[in-house]
């Protein structure tokens, strides 16, 4: 190729020889990449699904199947159709248990919806020593329900601390554990006292998402504490209130430990404080336990509990509309 040209020469460009690029190195397979099989997610879900199937689904289906038999503790029983369901309609103890369970829901749920909210608003403030009060209010939640029940039995007994204080003040003894209605109210008080801290934590998480600017704007407009609570706090945590209502309704309808510990295995004087879950325990345990009839009662409790939850959710949807 020429590097210089005279005026008479034409401009020519010498074609450069074709240069063959070096071969690209062979690409190694990425060892970090794996082909995902369609069954891979199910392999991860399998342990949890097996546990649910073994301890929830199978017992539920077995209970439904036994509810149509006359099975007892030591005998398999035979198919009897809907005889167990027809019998419980005429069972006076079933209606007593249903009455007590519904009264328990009506007495406990409103308190567990409102009191933890007020308590959460109190302890969310940044005050000296507020951490101690948060821990103190939550302590009953982590305490064993058996321990809590026994403590309250000792307090409410005829020779307990509360009756001793009433006598010291000149009042007579109060039969907290001997009067059927007072016993049921005492069990409700224990349930509320033990559940306050649990639902307080749920409300604290919801209140943390309420903007402070809304409260400040209402305060500037002259709204007091009660009006700010009704117009700002309640609408902001309404979905949480529905959740608390649903959880507490199911727990109250299926109450067992508090009433059992305070009323005894017979359900109080004459069985007047027996709940539905206590009735299932009374009928289905022992060597001569009627497993078939107890299973029918369990299915009814499940249906009523499901209906109660759907009722709460439906009421919430109507308010949203």
TrEMBL record:
It is found in: Cell membrane. This is Sugar ABC transporter permease. Residues 11-34 are annotated as: Disordered. It comes from Streptomyces nigrescens. Belongs to the binding-protein-dependent transport system permease family. Residues 98-312 form the ABC transmembrane type-1 domain. Keywords: Cell membrane, Membrane, Transmembrane, Transmembrane helix, Transport. It is a multi-pass membrane protein. The chain crosses the membrane at residues 42-61, 102-123, 135-155, 181-208, 229-253, 293-313. InterPro entries: ABC_transporter_permease (IPR051393), MetI-like (IPR000515), MetI-like_sf (IPR035906). Pfam families: BPD_transp_1 (PF00528).
